[in-house]
Design brief:
The chain has about 650 residues and is an alpha/beta fold. Helices cover about 30% and strands about 20% of the residues. Keywords: Acetylation, ATP-binding, Ligase, Magnesium, Metal-binding, Nucleotide-binding.
């Protein structure tokens, strides 16, 4: 971004007060903000008591060597004990921990007592395979209960896991195995995806032929599909059921230091080799547990919680595995895609289990919008009482649709801003406290310090835009980039002295609430104004004919950059002559003439990463008539051929 501060274009005046009933019984009230502000460290020390420590910490934060934080450093605990055993010891062994729903329709439920037995057996099996505290274990699995069991078994042994999303290629897996120097890989024959078995084991076999993966001595294989004719490497490959099933069902957990590594998770970032984000034990578990309790208002006795993310992303780590299980929640785990075998599959699952709290991503909400209002209307969604969003800014119209068609116009929406690096939620409304605003993550959570600054690191006034920064360390922060402290310093701590640079553009509204405006790389410079792609996209999506939009700045001789928009039309909308003009006029009316797109192209699909983020970089290549860069992280690279085919030759 240049020195010109981000134009503050979008005016969104709608407000939604928390439901009175929810507010009256909310887990967290406005007092938490005061407590967090008055004594931040005292606040977190108190939250750490949510956990069961073998040795209670006496220190809260050690910031003597910034930005390398230590939280609760003299405490000791076991994460798996906290997520499983202690609930059984507290008499909750019969409570369902996981309702698993397979894509083909198979289902099974595991109680906390069953989970304890499975995790214990898996921990013994890993020990038999030579896994010791500190050894890294790569996990490459579909969304099945064994994935959660495997992660908890690693945590139980103090062996940091590195979960690699099952949709990633052999190459991506090999790079990650190599970087973390993993000793064991846990995988499956395959999983179910879009109505058919999709193999995983062949990618592991291929990855392990690559240089740098020689230290992998065992591959533990879960049988999920049973249909693949898989290659078998005697002496290296072991079936899960052969080694896990025969182990003892009891296992004594060992307590580890609060700063013992819990996991490494790779983020691709926009350039360069993936960064291994390192998270540790005590601070991480404290913040995921607290935020899951506070932001979802979780009542573990009665709620049925469902996070639709994949465990391969941080959302799955923090809000499928560690947060909900630390809190003794009952949750749904779904293996497949939202439209298999039909576009109402998610709503059918909500109805079947009586889901009360749903946590999903804007990209999924926009897909459901596109499929039509009549689909969710066929199911009983009345159990839902809190709705969450994460992953990118949610366009106000998608927010309104989510509230109206999924939340019966009453469930509060919590738009949670955070990152792989932050480990847990950082900004979000509180469902019993905040009057929500469609499209805004609003405020730092209690105990969190964040603001928006300009190029010179000065906090911007209300009504102005700039960069989101975190101004104080937080318990679940990344500790470093695995094996690369310098890159940790350079990437996050060098842009603004003493502040964590998140890489997101943001603005403060007149009330001081924060609106995220997308990655800084996605801000456009048009005739001397910085304009956020997010705001132009939201203006387009607010038009009744548009389901989804992606906006990029393309080099332009007159205006530095020109706004170029790619739109997906709603089901019935026709792509006629007047449409483009109508949409341009609509944006001008919503945001002002400066934000009017120079070009608008209706397309059938948008290029997305596997975690659902739009790859604007590729659209910029198209808009500027360049050869496409790397398309390997796209879910479907043929999307780009379709888009290019629509393009008139000159930009
Ligand atoms: C980036 C982090 C957090 C888990 C999933 C993504 C964007 C995330 C929001 C939100 C606006 C958001 C940011 C952030 N983002 N949540 N509620 N509003 N933007 O984790 O892959 O590490 O991506 O996702 O740009 O920096 P991630």
């Amino acid at each position: 971004m240049s020195n010109e501060s981000l134009a503050n274009l979008l005016k969104e005046e709608r407000r939604f007060a928390p439901p009175a009933e929810l507010a009256a019984h909310a887990n967290v009230t406005a007092a938490a903000y005061e407590q967090g502000a008055a004594d931040r460290l005292g606040f977190w020390a108190e939250q750490a008591r949510r956990l069961s420590w073998e040795t209670e910490p006496t220190q809260t934060l050690d910031w003597s060597n910034p930005p390398f934080a230590k939280w609760f450093a003299d405490g000791k605990l076991n994460v798996a004990y906290n997520c499983v055993d202690r609930h059984v010891e507290n008499g909750l062994g019969d409570r369902v921990a996981i309702h698993f729903e397979g894509e083909p329709g198979d289902s099974r439920s595991l109680t906390y007592a069953e989970l304890q037995r499975e995790v214990s057996k898996a921990a013994h099996a890993l020990t038999e395979l030579g896994v010791r505290a500190g050894d890294r274990v790569a996990i490459y699995l579909p969304m099945i209960p064994e994935t959660v069991v495997a992660m908890l078994a690693c945590a139980r042994l103090g062996a940091p896991h590195s979960v690699v999303f099952g949709g990633f290629s052999a190459d991506a897996l090999a790079t990650r195995i190599n970087d973390a120097d993993a000793r064991v890989v846990i995988t499956a024959d395959g999983g179910y995806r879009r109505g058919k078995p999709s193999a995983l084991k062949p990618a592991v076999d291929e990855a392990l032929t690559r240089p740098g993966t020689e230290n992998v001595r065992s591959v533990l294989v879960v049988r999920r599909t049973g249909q693949e004719d898989i290659a078998w490497h005697e002496g290296r490959d072991v079936w899960w059921h052969d080694i896990v099933d025969r182990q003892s069902e009891t296992h004594t957990p060992e307590a580890f230091d609060a700063e013992h590594p819990l996991f490494i998770l790779y983020t691709s970032g926009t350039t360069g080799k993936p960064k291994g984000i390192l998270h540790t034990t005590g601070g991480y578990l404290t913040q995921v547990s607290y935020t899951h309790h506070a932001v979802f208002d979780l009542k573990p006795e009665t709620d049925v919680y469902w996070c639709t993310a994949d465990v391969g992303w941080v959302t799955g780590h923090s809000y499928i595995v560690y947060g909900p299980l630390a809190n003794g929640a009952t949750e749904v785990l779904y293996e497949g895609t939202p439209d298999t075998p039909h576009q109402g599959r998610w709503w059918e699952i909500v109805q079947k289990y009586g889901v009360t709290i749903l946590y999903t991503a804007p990209t999924a909400i926009r897909a459901c919008m596109k499929w039509g209002d009549d689909i969710p209307a066929k199911f009983d969604l009345s159990s839902l009482r809190v709705l969450g969003s994460v992953g990118e800014p949610i366009n106000p119209e998608a927010w309104i649709w989510y509230r109206k068609h999924i939340g019966a116009d009453s469930a509060p929406i919590v738009d949670t801003w955070w990152q792989t690096e932050t480990g847990a939620m950082m900004l979000s409304p509180l469902p019993g406290v905040t009057a929500t605003k469609p499209g805004s993550a609003q405020l730092p959570l209690p105990g969190i310090s964040a603001t928006v600054v300009d190029d010179d690191a000065h906090e911007v006034p209300d009504g102005a835009g700039g960069y989101l920064v975190l101004t104080e360390p937080w318990p679940s922060m990344l500790r470093t980039i695995w094996g690369d402290d310098q890159r940790y310093l350079d990437t996050y701590w060098s842009r603004f002295e003493g502040k964590y640079f998140a890489g997101d553009g943001a603005k403060k509204d007149e009330d001081g609430d924060i609106w995220l405006l997308g990655r800084v790389d996605d801000v456009m410079l048009v005739s001397g104004h910085n304009i956020s792609t997010t705001e132009v996209e939201s203006a387009l999506v607010s038009h009744p004919k548009v389901a989804e939009a992606a906006v990029v700045g393309a080099t332009d001789p007159q205006t530095t950059q020109a706004i170029c928009a790619f739109v997906i039309l709603r089901g019935s909308a026709a792509e006629d002559e007047g449409l483009v003009e109508e949409l341009r006029a609509h944006v001008a009316q919503q945001l002002g003439p400066i934000a009017k797109p120079k070009r608008i192209l209706p397309v059938a699909e948008l290029p997305k990463t596997r975690s659902g983020k739009i790859m604007r970089r590729l659209l910029r290549d198209v808009a500027e008539n360049r050869d496409l860069g790397d398309v390997s992280t796209l879910t479907d690279s043929s999307v780009m051929d379709l888009i290019q085919a629509k393009l008139p030759s000159a930009a």
